[in-house]
Amino acid sequence: MAGNIVNNYGSFPVVFVSGKGATLTDRDGKEYIDFVAGIGVNCLGHGHPALVKAVREQAAKQIHISNYYNSDKGLAFSEALLKRTGMDRVYFGNSGAEANEAAIKLARKYGRQKDETGKRCVIVTLDKSFHGRTLATLAATGQDAFHPPWFAPYPAGFRTIAPNDYAGLDTLDNTVCALMVECVQGEGGVNLLDGAWAQAAAQAARKAGALVIADEVQTGVGRTGAFLACDALGLESDVVTLAKGIAGGIPMGACLFRGPAREVFAAGDHQSTFAGNPLACAAGLVVLEELGRPGFLERVARAGEQLRGGIAGWNLPGVSGVRGKGLMCAFDFAPAPAGVVQKECLDAGLCVTTAGKNVVRMLPPLVISDGEIQRGMGILKTILEKHGA
Ligand SMILES: Cc1ncc(COP(=O)(O)O)c(C=O)c1O
After folding, report:
1. In whole angstroms, what is the distance from residue 178 CA to residue 199 CA?
2. Domain 50-291, CATH among 3.40.50.300, 1.10.10.10, 3.40.640.10, 3.40.50.450
3. What confidence tens digit (pLDDT) does each residue in 40-84 have?
4. Is the pLDDT of residue 1 over 70?
5. 16-34+318-386 — its CATH code?
6. Ligand 1 center to residue 94 CA distance, Å?
7. What ligand 1 atom has the least distance to the C-alpha of 215?
8. Ligand 1 binding pocket includes 216 (Cβ within 6 Å)
9. How many whole angstroms from 348 Cα to the centroid of ligand 1?
10. Cα 307 vs. chain centroid, distance in angstroms?
11. Given the DSSP bridges, would you call strands 176-181 and 122-126 parallel, antiparallel or unpaired?
12. pTM tops 0.90
């Protein structure tokens, strides 16, 4: 418990006061290498000059106006985001769960348009998926650990199939309005989706008359070394959801539509007071500009290889399954729970996170320097070796 903040995060007692690049400073002046980036959010790191300038200037001009009106930054960001992604329309929200909630509602309405009996209402997701913490997105999440009985009843109309298993695709039928997938499952353990299977799954969904939703809340906005992981995988989606890195740390989510999903929402179908405010859009414009710089995404891919290659190259007993894409990385650690590694790394000046009991996960800022990667890896190795790895 920190102060009076409700204790549902189990936060560490450290109190951060500032950051620069991928280095954080706590209130005692101690520095930490940041391999977490606010759980994949601070794509431009901390204190990025262009982001700080844009947010500062926009805050002085206008922070929020409501969706009764348009803002110059809202129009500019929506145009730039659609151009970058090749999508047709965007709904802005404030988080990943909200972006997915929008996608789920849109899919349900699409299903109803195709079959007015309401039979086509099922959203199919993947085992070990994670889609958010609202009740509908929890119901979409394919992990029992996220379905404790005290939140029941969960919304109906969700079921899962196994990723990378062709047999499951035969179950996609005329009751399904959407298939929703993460190209790399983040919270579920950093599990990569096979490209051929993903393409076959999208094809099977379309054949069944369902939409394809790519949940790119964690994988999107350059995290995997491509702006959208689904594009790199060859997964053609009708709906893409984004959040986390989209505005460099200012809360924002987005649900993007195209093709058959383009005109499904009508006025009043889905709304949010804060959504698409000019402050977040101004920040989002900077993120798009920075990620669009020549070589930026290639560097993300290379930095990820440096991190994974380095860890795998140590050949430490107890470390296995070094995996990931771009700067979304993880490995299994047998000698101690990942939470213990996380705490000991923090004490030693390195932020890492977990994705399951024995999975250590790393999501550094996309702008992390080679030097910061090396320093962070040095700390990590010391901690792993301490456990006899
Ligand atoms: C794939 C995916 N979808 C949805 C969410 C939920 O996002 P938020 O915490 O912003 O609601 C997350 C968060 O980790 C995620 O990784």
Report:
1. 15
2. 3.40.640.10
3. 999 999 999 999 999 999 999 999 999 999 999 999 999 999 999
4. no
5. 3.90.1150.10
6. 11
7. 1
8. no
9. 28
10. 20
11. parallel
12. yes
